[in-house]
Design a protein that fits this description.
mainly alpha; 12 helices; elongated
Length: 236
C-alpha cells in the first residue's frame, strides 16, 4: 500500500510536467510548421533572394521537422547576408557536430556574431576560449568576451570576471577587482536564488582576505562598474 501511495504521488507530480513539455513541443511545431505547398513557394522565393523566406524555412526545419541539415542550409543564406542572430544560430547548430570542420565553422560564426554584439555568442565564445577544447585556450580572449557580456547585465559573466581576477587568469591576481565584480553580481541577482546564495558566500570568503582599505577600494571600483553597466543598459 505504501508503494502504491508513493507511485500515485509521483505520478501526480510527473504528469503536469510531461503535459507541459508536450505542449511546448506542440506549440513550437504549430508556430513554425509550413505546409508542403507553402514550402515550394518559399523555396522559389529563396532562389530570388528573399531572406524572409529563407528564415521561415530555416525555423520550420529547425523546430518543426528537426532536420538540422536543411535548417543549416537556409540559416547559412541568412548568416552570409550578415544576419547576426542567424550567425549565432548557425554557430550553435554546428559547434556540437562530430565533424571537426563543422565545429571550426561554428567558431567562426560565433566570432562574427559576437563582434556584431550578440550577447549569447559573446558568452559562448568566452566559454570556448576558457575551456580550450575546440579552440586554443586563451584566458585573455575569454576575459575580453566575459567582460563584454558582464557589462551587458549577464550575472554569470560577472561571476566569471570575479573568478578570473581572483585566480590571476590573464590579468595579475587582483582580489579587490574580484570583490568589485562579486558585488556587481550580487546586486543583479535575487538573494533567494541558489546563484545569489553562492555569490554571497564567495563574497564573504573574499572579504575575510581583504583589509578595510582594500574593501573601500573594491566598493569604489564596484560603483564605477555599476555606472558602466547602467549606461550600457540604457543604450540597449
Amino acid at each position: 500500500m505504501n508503494f502504491l501511495k508513493f507511485f500515485l504521488s509521483l505520478f501526480i507530480l510527473i504528469v503536469p510536467f510531461i503535459i507541459g513539455c508536450t505542449n511546448n513541443i506542440n506549440s513550437n511545431y504549430d508556430a513554425y510548421f509550413i505546409s508542403p505547398n507553402e514550402r515550394v513557394t518559399l523555396e522559389q522565393e529563396v532562389k530570388k533572394g528573399d531572406t524572409k523566406a529563407a528564415e521561415k524555412l530555416a525555423y520550420h526545419y529547425l523546430y518543426a521537422e528537426h532536420d538540422n541539415e536543411k535548417a543549416i542550409e537556409y540559416m547559412r543564406i541568412l548568416a552570409i547576408s550578415g544576419n547576426a542572430r542567424m550567425q549565432h544560430n548557425m554557430a550553435a547548430a554546428l559547434i556540437n557536430s562530430q565533424d571537426l570542420k563543422c565545429r571550426q565553422e561554428g567558431v567562426d560564426w560565433y566570432k562574427l556574431s559576437a563582434k556584431a554584439g550578440i550577447k549569447n555568442s559573446q558568452y559562448d565564445l568566452a566559454r570556448l576560449y576558457e575551456e580550450g577544447k575546440i579552440i586554443t585556450k586563451n584566458y585573455c580572449e575569454a576575459m575580453f568576451w566575459y567582460e563584454k557580456t558582464a557589462l551587458s547585465d549577464d550575472v554569470y559573466s560577472m561571476v566569471k570576471m570575479a573568478e578570473f581576477y581572483k585566480e590571476g587568469k590573464c590579468e595579475e591576481k587582483d582580489l579587490i577587482q574580484s570583490y568589485s565584480w562579486l558585488r556587481l553580481a550580487e546586486l543583479n541577482t535575487s538573494n533567494k536564488s541558489s546563484l545569489g546564495k553562492s555569490i554571497r558566500n564567495k563574497e564573504k570568503r573574499l572579504i575575510n582576505q581583504l583589509s578595510e582599505k582594500e574593501i573601500e577600494l573594491g566598493i569604489l571600483k564596484f560603483e564605477k562598474l555599476k555606472t558602466l553597466l547602467d549606461k550600457n543598459i540604457q543604450l540597449n
